[in-house]
């Protein structure tokens, strides 16, 4: 903490991983001898830069841009960009650190990185967002590349922003280098299923956890937080698999719909109009209501999908969910559940899928997008869906099996951390002290 002051999210993410690595470090002393943990905790490179831009009234604003290139033992740095006022170096480091293990778990040859800015896209015009993205990329371009570092989206960065970023990269470099960003539009190098992948994957992971206990998603009710990219496609896949998602939320509150979420309406409001979830309750009719500043976790349901942001589900929320009989929690967001809440779920026997495993579907399909870009061939929807399903099954299997092997059966946190760690650690050992 003395070395990295003022970075509580980074400390939280590191502590959560180190708490589970004891058995593997004891079993394989060569890791400690090679200083692996110390090296893993220090990013290979941290870039911080000025992002000046002009608003529609001619006023100049200055934001701060970040890219943390954390670990490239398994492949080029890979991880999203987040635009949100809460972004600082500690948040970017927590996300980058998590990304190392998540990417290792996919088995796809990608290192870990993350970036973003404290820019707040809410209330900005499309022209302002474009000018911001162009200024951000003007600096970022010198640090990234298809063989070096490949950013993607995250909170506040979706298809529109990736388009502006790609346009500026292409202009600066004079290269049509599709593989430099993922989450591109489908007419110009993007993969089918990339927008859906994280949410779909989180639901597939929950289905695998339930299957391991002899249960199924079909017929279960679900509580989902957020109403962005991850939440919308979590809701979509839940409905495809016969479950009934009841909620969505944003930073102003949540909506609950007794008939189940009308996804077409929610998509229209969020994706087309870029509006707020409260709108949904106004337009949906009597089955839905908006609860301002409410905790979505108070809605009784069989399965829960935190899909908004870090530390959005605390120990009180966990008590409520457990009292309401929740069977499984699958993290679509990164680190949405506080450590105390995770312990409560595990003690209560709730199947708990940590983000590193449960939300890895997004980055996995990003890696498939890179594969398509490299071969200049676009795959079919069926092929990408099949690959995604296979990857989620394999992440579940390796997390489950590793937890058992290290004496913590059913503990997906330990299983995912150790399985991801082993892959990165072995690559780092083989590549020497660098
Ligand atoms: P979006 O920007 O599309 O949506 C974010 C949603 O979460 C919005 O509904 C937003 O509400 C809400 N939210 C964000 N910050 C807060 C906050 N501080 N308090 C309350 N609500 C908040 O982002 P994504 O759906 O892409 O990302 C959601 C989560 O999933 C993040 O943790 C991200 O890291 C993780 N993730 C995303 C992946 C992807 O492929 N996109 C891949 C893996 C993980 P509001 O509009 O009011 O801010």
Entry keywords:
2 domains; alpha/beta; Rossmann fold; binds NADPH dihydro-nicotinamide-adenine-dinucleotide phosphate; 5-stranded parallel beta sheet; 434 residues; 13 strands; Glu/Leu/Phe/Val/Trp_DH_C; 5-stranded mixed beta sheet; oxidoreductase
Structural account:
- The chain is an alpha/beta fold.
- The protein folds into 2 domains: 169 residues, Rossmann fold, CATH 3.40.50.10860; 158 residues, NAD(P)-binding Rossmann-like Domain (Rossmann fold, 3-Layer(aba) Sandwich), CATH 3.40.50.720.
- Helices cover 48% and strands 16% of the residues.
- The chain has 16 helices and 13 strands.
- It has a 5-stranded mixed sheet with strand order 1-2-4-3-5. Strands 7-6-11-12-13 form a 5-stranded parallel sheet, sandwiched between helices.
- Helix 1 runs parallel beside helix 4 and helix 7 crosses helix 15.
- The radius of gyration is 21 Å and the shape is globular.
- The chain starts with 7 loop residues before the first helix and ends with a helix.
- Bound molecules: NADPH dihydro-nicotinamide-adenine-dinucleotide phosphate.
- NADPH dihydro-nicotinamide-adenine-dinucleotide phosphate (NDP) binds next to helix 8.
Write the element-wise H/E pattern from the N-terminal end onward: HHHEEEHEHEHHEHEEEHHEEHEHEHHHH
Helix content: 40-55%
- Counting DSSP H or I runs of 4 or more residues, the number of helices is 16
Q: Please give the oligomerization state of what you see.
A: single chain
Q: What's the CATH topology label of the largest domain?
A: Rossmann fold
Q: What ligands are attached or bound here?
A: NADPH dihydro-nicotinamide-adenine-dinucleotide phosphate
End-to-end C-alpha gap: 23 Å
Q: What share of the residues does DSSP label as strand, in percent?
A: 15-25%
**Integer tally of domains:** 2
Number of beta strands: 13
> Ranges with pLDDT <50 over ≥5 residues?
none
Q: Going across the biggest sheet, name each strand in turn.
A: 1-2-4-3-5
> How does the overall form come out from the CA principal axes?
globular
* CATH hierarchy: architecture of the largest domain: 3-Layer(aba) Sandwich
